[in-house]
């Protein structure tokens, strides 16, 4: 592949250099371009968080308990799995992901150029991406990602010069949810183009180092010449209609009706059996999730003991409790978070305390969700009662009392 495929001179002020995030050729191209152009500034496809992690070789502090309480374990797991996949591809070809950005920073300092961070905050990107997915799309996405981790097909890195590794993965995501790709690629193209236009008012010449898959999108936006509304691209909109919460409260109402019906039957044996069924089914499946995540005995026990209650309360997830207990037992530190970047196998991920806590919370929630539906079926089957008929008769008897 020749240089013109990965380099675009927009005008005398902005030069785009497209890179594959796992290619040695990209690193050399970045170095040569900056040395030959001697720009006033070098813009890189990083935000502050990723810049800090790359330069200082460590991630910024993340409170695992806060992540669990915010219900964002799935988001962080997704981000970690993406990073792991990218790292595995780079390792195969002897390149560290982000090495081309480090080279850009190094050479920029050599020529006395300022360093500009032009990408959107990664957490905002993932939140906007995640919120655009339906529940089914989220499940499909995780399955697709996990399958890709074990996929043995050879990858041609030169082909990744046409679209960087994240973009290549996004093309797979597009099959699952075409609209969701907007947050991962198109919005970032717009955001980075906007930042470049802003900076071009201060600098005479900028070399921008971005993933190859972003070059065309950024180029099109730059040709428009108008700075987009960047603040709008930083908003994480909360949907007025939350399907997960709606389902949660619907289940709560349905289960409440079932248990009220059982209580109204005044059959002590039936009431006790219904509670035992509900307790055991929810507890066993939630504990099984924690066990599969290789949680501590205390985390597994907490999942078992509290699942019946959390299944009745849509505001609290079983994984919150087991995850927080796991965090208390394992006590993951910033060192564990740093070690995630060194994971070379699935075993390395599973042995990491930080990742383990996330997995315990996620799989406990999954077990609890399955347990709730099976529990409802079991209790209904046990009672053999027509709930509607019982409520009608009870109300009628109260009226005629």
UniProtKB/TrEMBL annotation:
It comes from the Archaea. InterPro entries: TraB/PrgY/GumN_fam, TraB_bac, TraB_PrgY-like. Keywords: Membrane, Transmembrane, Transmembrane helix. The chain crosses the membrane at residues 247-267, 274-293, 305-329, 354-380. PANTHER family: PHEROMONE SHUTDOWN PROTEIN (PTHR21530), TRAB DOMAIN-CONTAINING PROTEIN (PTHR21530:SF7). This is Pheromone shutdown-related protein TraB.
């Amino acid at each position: 592949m020749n240089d013109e495929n990965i380099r675009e001179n927009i005008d005398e002020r902005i030069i785009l250099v497209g890179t594959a995030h796992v290619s040695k050729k990209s690193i050399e191209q970045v170095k040569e371009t900056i040395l030959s152009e001697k720009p006033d500034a070098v813009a890189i496809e990083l935000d502050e968080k990723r810049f800090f992690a790359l330069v200082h070789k460590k991630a910024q502090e993340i409170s695992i308990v806060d992540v669990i309480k915010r219900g964002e374990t799935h988001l962080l797991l997704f981000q970690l799995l993406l990073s792991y996949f990218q790292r595995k591809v780079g390792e195969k070809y002897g390149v560290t992901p982000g090495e081309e950005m480090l080279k850009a920073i190094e050479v920029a300092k050599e020529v006395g150029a300022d360093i500009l961070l032009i990408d959107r905050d990664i957490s905002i990107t993932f939140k906007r991406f995640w919120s655009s997915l339906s529940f089914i799309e989220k499940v499909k996405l995780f399955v697709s990602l996990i399958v890709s981790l074990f996929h043995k097909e050879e990858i041609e890195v030169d082909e990744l010069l046409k679209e960087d590794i994240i973009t290549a993965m996004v093309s797979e995501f597009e099959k699952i949810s075409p609209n969701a790709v907007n947050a991962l690629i198109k919005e970032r193209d717009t955001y980075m183009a906007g930042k470049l236009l802003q900076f071009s008012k201060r600098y005479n010449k900028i070399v921008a180092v971005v993933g190859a898959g972003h070059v065309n999108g950024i180029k099109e936006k730059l040709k428009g010449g108008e700075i987009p509304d960047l603040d709008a691209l930083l908003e994480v909109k909360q949907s007025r209609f939350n399907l997960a919460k709606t389902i949660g409260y619907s289940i709560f109402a349905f289960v409440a009706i079932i248990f009220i019906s059982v209580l109204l039957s005044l059959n002590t044996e039936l009431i006790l059996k219904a509670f035992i069924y509900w307790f055991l089914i929810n507890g066993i499946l939630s504990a099984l999730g924690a066990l599969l995540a290789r949680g501590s005995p205390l985390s597994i026990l907490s999942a078992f003991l509290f699942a019946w209650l959390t299944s009745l309360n849509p505001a609290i997830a079983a994984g919150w409790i087991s995850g927080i207990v796991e965090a208390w037992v394992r006590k993951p530190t910033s060192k564990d978070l740093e070690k995630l970047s060194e994971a070379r196998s699935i075993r390395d991920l599973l042995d990491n305390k930080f990742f383990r806590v996330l997995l315990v919370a996620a799989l406990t929630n999954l077990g609890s969700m399955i347990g709730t539906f099976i529990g409802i079926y079991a209790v209904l089957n046990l009672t053999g009662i027509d709930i509607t008929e019982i409520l009608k008769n009870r109300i009628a008897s109260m009226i005629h009392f």
